[in-house]
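Morning, I've got a small favour to ask if you have a moment. I owe you a coffee for this, so here goes:
>
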Amino acid sequence: MKINLMKRQGFLLLFFMTAVLGVTSCQPDDSIVDNGLTNSNVDASFDIIPVEGKVNTYQLVAQTKGVLKSLWDTGAGDYAGKMVEEISLPDAGTYTIVHTAIGSGGGKASASKEIVVATSDPLKGNLVQGGSFATAADQAKWTVLNLSATGAAFWSYENNSATIHSPGGWAQEGIYQAIDVVKDKEYTIDMRVSSPSGSDETWFEVYAGTSAPASGVEYKDNKVMGLSTWDGCAKAGFSGMLSVVGCVKNDKTGTVSNTVKFAATGKVYLLIRSGGNTFTKDGITVSKIEMRGK
């Protein structure tokens, strides 16, 4: 009797466990509304504080409660920054600053504020003319460096930007303009670059050299920065400032740096040269080109 009773209890327990497992396995994955880990009420608020003693320089101060990471956008796309971020806006204008706060579980929220810069910084003004490509007059500030004998690679202008197109097969093309610089003064060069798709065996290089470009001759004087699939960038789609998304080393410093200085006062040529073997079908687009004194 005792053995039969134990067997019966064992069968009942097995039946109960099977039933429970059957019910829970039939429940959809989203039956749990919230796992309690995601913060759905992240506070992205921030303050803008002018930095005393610095021209057109501001601190962006995010509230920190419940925030694990801050993304900032000052007009050139999101980048990962600090919760107290210092920015410089050398040119007069109205800027919309967007802060995206990320909390626990990936919860996020965004907030925006405007900064009105009344006067340009006389020492850090942009030396590049037509860097926005907004008008025909802007576009005329740039000279095409013909490097593709058949014209297979070419630059086009639209939507306040310039785009280099290439069918691949190592076809390339450049654009440039002359800029006056001062001996031993440091300058920074930057620009917004983007492409929704990647490339292979492709380069996008920025030079600031003293030798004049010549048609049909590949320019190689003082490479400052750029994109290169050999160095690990532009293999997939990208968007951002070249100083952030680029991976090409500066000829003078041997590091990824957008700072340059020159041994003599005079004229240099800011030149962009791009092409490749398997070039992105969408082209590489550039806008907001700038060169500023530090």
